[in-house]
Model the fold of this input.
Amino acid sequence: MDLSTAFPTLVTDLPAAFSMSVVGLVGLAMIVLDAFRNDHPAIPWLGVAALGVSAAWEATHLGAPQSTVFFETLRTGGFVAFINLIILLTGLATILLSVPYLNQLRYDYGEVYALIMFSTVGMIMLGSANNMVSIFLGLETMSVCLYVLTGFIREDEGAVESALKYFLLGAFSTGFFLYGIALMYGATGTMALPAMAAAELGTLSTRLLFWGGFALFLVGFFFKVSAAPFHMWTPDVYQGAPTPLTGYMSTATKAAAFAALILVLVHAVPGGEWQLSVAAVAVLTMVIGNVMALAQTNVKRLLAYSSIAHAGYVLVGLSAGTSAGYAGALFYLLVYAVMNIGAFGVMSMLEWDGKEGREQTLSSLAGIANDRPVLGSTMGIFMLSLIGFPPLGGFAGKYFVFAPAVDAGLTWLVVIGVLMSALSAYYYLRVVYVFWMQSADDVEATDPVRAAAFPRATVAATGTLVVCAVALVVLGVFFGGVLETTLGFFESTAMATAP
Amino acid sequence: MAILFAVFSGFVLALASPWLTQYTGRATGWVYGLLPAAITGTLATLVGEVAAGETLRVSYAWVPGLNVNLSFYVDGLSLFFALLITGIGTLIYVYAGGYLKGHHHLGRFFSYLSMFMAAMVGLVLADNLITFYVFFELTSFASFVLIGFNHDEAPSRRAAWQALLVTKAGGLALLVGFILMQQATGTFQISAILESGDLIRQHSFYLPIVLLVLAGAFTKSAQFPFYFWLPNAMEAPTPVSAYLHSATMVKAGIYVMARFHPVLSGTDLWMWVVGGIGALTMLLSAWLALQYTDMKAILAYTTIMALGLLTMLLGLGTEVAVEACMVFILVHAFYKAALFMVAGAIDHEVHVRDITKLGGLWTRMPVTGAAAALAALSMAGIPPFFGFVGKELIYEAATHFDPATVAVTVVSVLANVALVASAGLLVVRPFFGELNDVTKHAHRPDAGLWFGPVVLAVFSVGLGLAPGLLDAAFLGPSAGTVLGASIAPHLALWHGFTLELGLSAVTVAAGVGTYLAWTALRTNTAFQQLERWLGTGLDHGYDNVVDGLLGVGRWQTSVLQSGVLRRYLSTVLGTTIVLVGAAFYHYGFFGGPISVADVRPHEWVLAILSVVGAFGTLFFRSRIGLITSLGVSGFGIALLFLAFGAPDLAKTQFLIETLTVILVVLILTTVSSVEGTLTASQKATNGAVAVGMGVVVSGLILAVLKLPFENPMGDYYAQNTYVEGEGHNIVNTILVDFRALDTLGEITVLLVAGFGIYALLRTGTAPDPNAEHEPPPEDASAPIEQAEQTQQVP
Done:
């Protein structure tokens, strides 16, 4: 190793870390500002500005060629820009939606927004990782912030409980993850993803070490993307966490973690020996997520199970193990982020303090769409898109993760996926049905809807929801360009491993 | 251009109508009706070209990378359906304007209706399986909002939801069928697939393709056993029923079968499944119709009968049968739309639809009555109406069908007998006889309410007198497309004294007889029992299926989502054992034999000490015993590190262990009891998971030991500390030279942490605006205890 070029290389590579630096530094600035002017109202807007600038930067780099920076620890190029764009825009939407929600709860602390920024930094690192250490760093930066965000409404026992559960189980999965990385390192002698694929696994015991380690690694990852049977924390945590942040957790986290998983699958273990395991987990995830969502009465819990089910759909695309499958999964992550951040956003506007904590049951919202038509319409679009109703984005997304799996000979997997989608129509439509078709008189023994106690719908928050809904329609009809872009990331030349 | 206008103008109106309706006022129906009329006119200009055997295509690349295109295709079949949809649509728009006059959600209604019409047109014109599916689902959704338009009534909501769930489930089956079809043929383009019939029929996917496509078609077109949703859907406003169940929604399933007839038919499987289910549906529903007194219920069951008949004809698949199918689609659309509109007009003016309570309306609404009479005569198949032409063709198809001539003929005649009786019930009961208390206050309906029925009645008469008009323009191209061959049909009112004429005469006579015996028939207990099984019975079956699914969901939730952290962990660990165990299974256990000969005695002692300590934590009841055994286990490991010559590691481990023991002591003092409450089986499960995990981890460690040990980093630092870092202390050079940037980062972290602490201190001293919302100070251990107790109910 020649150390004399280290510093110049770091300097030349700095632009590759633009988003990470901007978001991280502004997060620090927010903490500093908060220290001097407690809970300053400008803090969230600082975050919005930083995330917006970074998103614009990433958008201009969608077509960039792929290469690596910082001594092959991070990747740059279209794939990274695409994932970063999802993460940054989701973060942006989360902040806009959080402001009225947290104001209403009187928990509008400045550090909440700083934590969102730091978590975003972790996600960006995760999505651009080219090295197991980068993955671990990103994963932990992201997770530690999320543990805190889950439980920061300290009055709420549910929130505190869910934060503790999340932390304990999360720490556990991190243990698996680290153990897995260590074993894989032991087997291959490298932490860099492409070098892992190139390493010779000569003896029986090296192979055992590598695949045993990879299994542990997958356990850690499946936990983070809440794939069954590692999903159990999800409903409890999603229900307990502040609603806009649940949206953030369910979308950006998933996008980042899946991006890293794709990078590992493509670069470190390109052989596809894992196909059957991933397919099996996909089946479990789709079945458990959808069947358990049927019985839910709490909308946030319902959406939690739905997000488990959707992780299953993404895994279907990954099991295909082809460029089209990965591209479809990326596209799905984008669509999923838009519809889920929207759905949780709507729910955050429709919560109030009931007798037993924050009221989130479906029956308490009977006929709400007639009072709040914008929320009702956007929720309708989100739900229909989550079902995969054409011509919304959800349909296109589902189609482009299922079709490659059929091409890869996994027709049985897709048939299960489609059957489960049919099942999902039941619970998503129930939301639409209750929102639009029932009225408060049809529901017994609930508090009447107390519109006055809802968070105040700011222009920014409502605008975010409308933009999400419109984006779903646009993605559903004009998905061609986006999909072509994601396909381009996985073409053999573009995915070249050397800079 | 014409095609794009036909498909997309409806969506534009759907977006505009909520806003536009405030300007159109009372004339809304007539104004909006101009759009379907214009589409009809535009499409009509294509009739000449299509009749000459040409097909028109428009295609836009949607996802070029995956060969998904937005493409439309006009041939005989699709043009026939498109004209029917927009033509009847025009009349429905006018009618709906009158029926819902002054309704405060009129704009919304027309928005839904336009979306539905556009989706139907898109469906029939689509030339790509995916585009087809997209529009298929859009019709399901649009019908959902239309059926549930009166959403303040619970039955409406239930019906809307039921129709959507049933057709959506079928739609997904259809999608899988389409994907398999693409796998078999390599293309999504419908016009290309239509040319690869032999390929599909001989493909191993043929059976699943047929069954899946039929599942989609049968749910949409209300075939046995899925037809229960259609009578329930009568909760919709009558214009919706008239449109959905005469010419559009339910015909979408027929269209699916007709569209793919050239590639899927021609096998015994197709003939028996499609023909058999169609015949069964036709026979059952024709007679079930006679069990009801609500005009719309009778219309609903006769609609199912018509759909069964059409399905049966497509199953027979002969040239005459397909011609009969196309003619009957038209016949049915004309009379059924007219009769629905009449039923709606009566409902609108009298607010009663029960035929046993109506009577004498002829004097109050003569124009409507005349239109109803003409439509009913066509329905009954009386010459010279168009229905007669249709029925003759059906009988011709039945009597000329080879394998089961008698069965098909008998079933067709029996079903048509009931249809004649239903036609009588729908017109004679409400319009003839004496005015009664219910009907004497009836008003004369608006022009909007009788315009549609009159136009349709005129068509029923006109086409009956001159059916030859249809030969070249519609019947030849459409039936020819379904058959995949060029044909030159010839329709005529009079064929001479044939067997079919005889059957028609028998049908009408028997139908009149059934009509006269209606009351006796309706109160017959055996017949009522049939209705309980096949009418409401299937509906209850649907409820049971939905409840069953919910039950499974609840059961699974209670098993898997117990809220108990311990069980969550067991599941995670158990799965890990399986995953890693699979790697062991695949690659062998340790990668070779293990020798214990060179283990030194004191190492044995330390190892056993750790193991005993670990087991002690499981079995000690007293707190001091627990803490001690935990400490023994930990310090045993630390000593092992020391024994292997790693003093720094051992030092860290000692510190950690000490800290752990102190923390555990602190926690245990706040916990009231350490007695476990686990049952024996829970203990056994936990034990199994623990042993499994132990085995897996030990296996991995033993595998690690088999690897050669290399230490490139240590060698590197040892060699370069003096050369590069100019220092003798390796640790110092690593900190300030080799990893100087890391050190800078650590300093930064410290700085930020300092800021954080400053902020915390400030919050503590300054008056806090949120102070009143702070929780009361609680016992720090409360959340830990409650983690297992106050779980949200899953």
Notes: The beta strands of chain B are 56-63, 68-74. Residues 524-560 of chain B form one domain.
